[in-house]
Specification:
It is a single chain. The protein has 466 residues and is mostly helical. 46% of the residues are buried. It contains 14 helices and two strands. It starts with 24 loop residues before the first helix and ends in a 10-residue tail after the last helix. Strand 1 and strand 2 form a beta hairpin. It is globular and about 65 Å long. The chain has a single domain, classed as Hydantoin permease. The chain has a two-stranded antiparallel ribbon. Helix 4 crosses helix 12.
């Protein structure tokens, strides 16, 4: 297909602070897998149960292709078209390529989503910790025991861990944690796959259908509609990593060119993720049928093999510990850079003396970083305890940010950067993609609102119980 476009003049290649950038496509792939697979994989069997054997897998493939395509567009926008310098964050890329109010709109969408994800991960990790405790209780006291536990203590434990890890100075020093988190995501996904296969091989006769849950049998008319919208939201949100793509790309070495490395990493990350998503979603649906639970690991119960379920939940916890850092490091950097620009001579903000830590070597200590990041994690922890139903809100934030961050800005920056003429063939189909994804995001957000309204009917702050 011949592109009806005129190429712009791109500024000379410029690299700044190259010494601190040691990342490769391998480390970037680990960051992507850590950010993408997340806890979203656990709900995909439920999502396919709502959509059925045809629409469910198709939706997974369509969203994976859209995410991969727009991420390649975004990877080409990491440098300022005038100066040629790198953009260190998503907002910088939008400012350089689009300018105007787009920059502020991007900032609101990105950082509200990032904050929301960190709150949601605090709640999800606490639920997994509580599941391990309940599993041990059932094993000791029998299956008839209630074994209910409050989640607040586990939210606090997770917060304490994150206070320590939040002192990692920046994204450039985060590769080892992302690798560990990515391995953990593979581990609990494989455990879920193995248990699903065992369930099907053991003669499970779960009822499935081409269109998913049956109206009049499993759900009402309105429940079917809302559940399908929520399923689309879960699938769209499960692929979201555009919020941190530029930040990940900023860790890459300049040779080979970072946009080429990032495209390779995006291809690997999305391909691996899609393989796991389809496997977990399809086999989970085959195992549980139209009664698939929201978390397919809980569908296997807290009983035997209880130790294997415990290992899976432990892997989820470790993964979320790393994923939390992937999503909060851009927040930390944005606030710290802004404060340094506002008060460049303030010693509390500026000074970073090197101190020696046993086993870790030299560490640049900064008092402002310690205070600000600790305060952020504490605030997130308190909000997680106040709003135990926050996962519904997180779904709304994910649906609302999917369109601007994953689709709209990458497409518009590509059009601007390539000087694509209005109403030429490429301009038309790119904007058709934008409008189609906007409609999906609005519908998915509507499904999230329905979930939030339902949760508010039984809401009590600080009373999250597993």
């Amino acid at each position: 297909m011949e592109l009806e476009t005129g190429k712009p003049t791109i500024a000379p290649y410029v690299d700044d602070d190259s010494s601190k950038r040691t990342g490769t496509w391998v480390s970037a792939s680990a960051h992507i897998i850590t950010a993408v697979i997340g806890s979203g994989v656990l709900s995909l069997s439920w999502a396919i149960a709502q959509l059925g054997w045809i629409a469910g897998p198709i939706a997974l493939v369509v969203f994976s292709v859209i995410t991969w395509f727009t991420s390649t567009l975004l990877a080409d926008c990491c440098r300022d078209p005038v100066s040629g310098t790198r953009c260190s964050c998503y907002m910088d890329a939008v400012r350089s390529n689009l300018g105007g109010i787009s920059n502020k709109f991007c900032g609101i969408a990105q950082y509200v989503n990032l904050v929301g994800v960190t709150i949601g991960y605090s709640i999800t990790s606490a639920i997994s910790m509580a599941a391990i405790k309940r599993s041990g209780c059932f094993h000791r006291k029998g299956h008839a025991a209630g074994c209910h536990v409050k989640n607040n203590m586990f939210i606090i434990i997770f917060g304490i861990i994150e206070i320590v890890l939040s002192q990692i100075p920046n994204f450039h020093d985060l590769s080892w944690l992302s690798v560990v988190a990515a391995v953990m995501s593979f581990a609990y996904s494989c455990i879920g796959l193995g248990l699903s296969i065992a369930n099907v091989a053991g003669g499970s006769h779960s009822r499935t259908s081409l269109t998913g849950t049956t109206v009049g049998v499993d759900v009402t008319d309105w429940q079917k509609i809302w559940n399908c919208l929520e399923a689309l939201r879960d699938i769209a949100f499960a692929y979201a990593f555009s919020t941190v793509l530029i930040e990940i790309q900023d860790t890459l070495k300049s040779s080979p060119p970072e946009n080429e490395s990032m495209k390779k990493a995006a291809s690997v990350g999305v391909s691996v993720t899609t393989m796991f998503y389809i496997s977990c979603g399809v086999l989970g649906y085959a195992a549980f049928g139209n009664a698939a639970p929201g978390n397919f690991l809980t569908g296997f119960g807290f009983y035997e093999p209880y130790w294997l379920i415990d290992i899976a939940n432990l892997c989820i916890i470790i993964h979320l510990v790393g994923a939390y850092q992937v999503f909060c490091q851009p927040i930390f950097k944005q606030v710290e850079d802004w404060c340094l620009n506002q008060w460049p001579n303030n010693k509390f903000i500026k000074e970073s003396p090197a101190i020696k830590l046993p086993l870790f070597g030299d560490y640049t200590f900064n008092a402002f970083r310690l205070v600000w990041r600790t305060a952020y994690v504490i605030t997130v922890t308190v909000v997680a305890m106040i709003l135990p139903f926050f996962n519904g809100i997180l779904g709304l934030l994910g649906a609302a940010s999917f369109w601007p961050l994953t689709v709209y800005f990458p497409v518009q920056m590509h059009i601007s950067r390539e000087n694509i003429r209005p109403f030429c063939w490429k301009w038309i189909w790119l904007n058709v993609l934008v409008v189609a994804c906007l409609i999906i995001s609005v519908l998915a957000a509507a499904g999230s609102v329905a979930v939030i309204v339902k949760d508010l009917q039984t809401y009590r702050p600080f009373t999250s119980v597993s």
